[in-house]
Specification:
Elements lengths: L21 E2 L17 E3 L4 H8 L1 H11 L33 E7 L2 E7 L14 E8 L7 E9 L6 E5 L8 E8 L2 E2 L3 E4 L11 E6 L10 H7 L5 E4 L25 H11 L3 H9 L1 E4 L21 H17 L19 E5 L3 E5 L21 E2 L15 H13 L4 E5 L10 E2 L2 E2 L1 E2 L7 H13 L5 E5 L5 E7 L9 E7 L10 H10 L3 E5 L2 E9 L3 E10 L9 E9 L6 E2 L1
Parallel strand pairs: 3-13, 11-12, 12-13, 15-17, 17-21, 21-23
Antiparallel strand pairs: 1-2, 2-6, 3-4, 4-7, 5-6, 5-8, 8-9, 8-10, 11-25, 14-15, 16-20, 18-19, 22-23, 22-24, 25-26, 26-27, 27-28
Helix pairs in contact: 3-5, 4-6
């Protein structure tokens, strides 16, 4: 990605239907690489009245709308008490829910609910035990209207993480949830289900975020997002950093560079020790993808910057992927047969308003073009013939085809494609030719042209690429041939700055702006996140920022605003 290993920028130039039924999170075998981490779940109770409710739900919902009543207020829709008291189980000496709670990957009938039991030395005897955790879902913030309950078993093999793939919920509304284990109760989280796939929707409110180096600033952007009225937080990579830079250290990582599973677990746990990050997870449902620092800087497929033997590196990647899954509200974990593989790319519908894709730009990509034989990863190149190879891919052939088919078949108003980095060109014109940074899309220009050509040839409208990685806010036009006015604008791009990670210097950024007229806005001096309000007629974008470095009490303002109008390719500054 466009930064050095220290995190600074560096640019070139489930639930069952019958009580007592055991349920496993569904196994996904698409593309031959994905599988769910199986977690046994058990619905504690659901009455015959619940079953009748499901049969007549559509008819009842129509009645509810006319009567202005909520179906979850009916006693028959409420979950029954657990078969045993919630307090049964271990007597904790320290809070096992110190990492908080989270929700993610919403669908019309459910959402993934997450927590992880953090077992302290005071409760060390429990580390080797399988533990029962109760998940409770409510229709109200006061927790007076229970909806459903699930009881799950977790153990050390999954880091005592808990993933509840909920079902049977109502579309397009908030729910509140908590977890109980013995005498301990988690904080309460708020989750939101997606609208029904054919529901008319007049608004989708997204906070776009990325790149949160713990050492380089406070997570005050998460505090700000937690207080906002949002439908989703869309996080596009670098949730943790494996690396450090003493020059920009404001609060230190614990331990050294992680390579083993327990080390990655500890790094994730340290990040979730931040109260503002926990608050943002508890307040909003998240969609997520990763970039490189969740494993190691600038890795490409099975290769790291040190040219480590592939089998050795893939063991490290497997550890990082496992720890990532254990700390995120995700449906699918590492493939049990090949744990160095894990599906992260996904597609979500938000009523008739939008399709949202999350892409994986790391796991399947070709190795970097024209690499330095002494140090791998991305670098600035001039005259690299390999960049012209049409077979080189950022996404891998299978993911490319999946995305292309999805875009062309989508009938929703907006097509939002979230991926980890900047898609518009950011090379610099020099007397020796144009530079390219090989870790970003400039390092895969034929793959970029192929994707945008699909948009152009299919006549697709309202395609918006969303990214992060480069530690700066970017608003850009996207053409099949970048910066060529003879090539029509076919899509728009919004890239968010970093939560904390340090950005580019102004001198280099000025050269990038001068060399790339498709970039309408670019600033790297401030930290923050980006708000998108998606409506049928337009997307309104606000880059919310604070001066670098982000502080605990930082205030945020709109650095710039742009608008993307339905039916009009490209964007406009406001």
């Amino acid at each position: 990605m466009n930064k050095s290993d220290d995190g600074t920028s560096g640019h070139g130039a489930a639930g069952g239907k019958d009580a007592g039924i055991k349920v496993a999170v569904p196994m996904n075998t698409k593309m031959g690489t994905e599988a769910a981490a199986e977690i046994d779940a058990e619905v504690d109770a659901e009455t015959d009245a619940d079953a009748r409710l499901r049969v007549t739900r559509r008819h009842w919902q129509r009645m509810v709308l006319s009567m202005a009543l909520a179906p979850w207020l009916s006693p028959s829709a409420m979950a029954q008490p657990a078969a045993r008291p919630a307090s049964a189980g271990p007597r904790w000496q320290a809070d096992p829910f110190s990492l908080g709670v989270a929700s993610g990957q919403p669908q019309a009938d459910g959402v993934v609910l997450w927590t992880r039991l953090r077992i302290s030395e005071a409760d060390a005897a429990l580390k080797s035990q399988a533990l029962s955790v109760l998940c409770e879902v409510f229709a109200d913030a006061a927790l007076r209207q229970p909806v459903r309950q699930w009881r799950l078993q977790t153990d050390a093999s999954r880091g005592h993480s808990v993933h509840v793939v909920t079902t049977g919920l109502q579309p397009g509304r908030p729910y509140w949830y908590r977890f109980v284990c013995g005498n301990a109760r988690s904080p309460v989280g708020r989750a939101r289900t997606a609208p029904g796939p054919n529901d008319p929707v007049d608004r989708l409110r997204i906070a776009l975020a990325s790149c949160q180096h713990y050492e380089q600033g406070a997570f005050s952007a998460h505090r700000e997002m937690a207080q906002r009225d949002l439908d989703l937080v869309l996080f596009v990579g670098d949730y943790i950093y494996e690396s450090s830079n003493p020059q920009y250290l404001l609060r230190p990582h614990l331990g050294g560079v992680p390579k083993l599973l327990d080390e990655y677990r500890e790094r994730h746990a340290q990040y979730k020790s931040d109260a503002d990050l926990r608050a943002c997870h508890a307040a909003h449902t998240w969609l997520m993808t990763w970039d490189d620092h969740e494993v190691v800087n600038d890795y490409a497929n099975d290769l790291d910057r040190n040219y480590t033997d592939a089998p050795v590196f893939l063991r490290r990647r497997a550890a990082a992927y496992q720890a990532y899954f254990e700390h995120m509200p995700l449906r699918l974990g590492p493939d049990p047969v090949n744990p160095s593989q894990m599906r992260i790319h996904d597609r979500m519908a938000w009523g008739r308003l939008a399709d949202v894709w999350t892409l994986d730009c790391r796991q399947y990509r070709d190795h970097h073009a024209c690499p330095d034989p002494n140090r791998g990863g991305g670098r600035v190149v001039l005259g690299c013939d390999a960049l012209a190879d049409p077979a080189r891919s950022m996404l891998g052939a299978a993911q490319e085809q999946w995305l292309s088919q999805g875009l062309q078949s989508s009938t929703r108003r907006w097509k939002l494609v979230a991926q980890s980095t900047q898609m518009s060109s950011s090379g610099v014109n020099t007397p020796l030719g144009r530079s390219a940074f090989t870790d970003g899309w400039d390092g895969y220009p034929q793959a970029r042209a192929k994707l945008l050509n699909t948009v152009a040839q299919a006549g697709l409208q309202n395609v918006v690429m969303l990214g992060g990685d480069v530690h700066m806010n970017v608003a850009a036009q996207l053409r099949v041939q970048p910066n060529d006015e003879r090539s029509p604008v076919v899509a728009s791009e919004i890239v968010t700055t970093s939560i904390t990670s340090r950005g580019l210097g102004e001198k280099l950024l000025a050269q990038i702006r001068d060399s790339n007229p498709d970039i309408l806005h670019a600033r790297s001096d401030e930290r923050g996140f980006t708000l998108l309000e998606v409506k049928p007629d337009a997307i309104h974008v606000e880059f919310m920022t604070t001066p670098n470095p982000a502080k605990i009490d930082s205030a945020f303002k709109a650095q710039a605003q742009v608008v993307i109008r339905s039916g009009v390719a490209g964007l406009q500054k406001v």
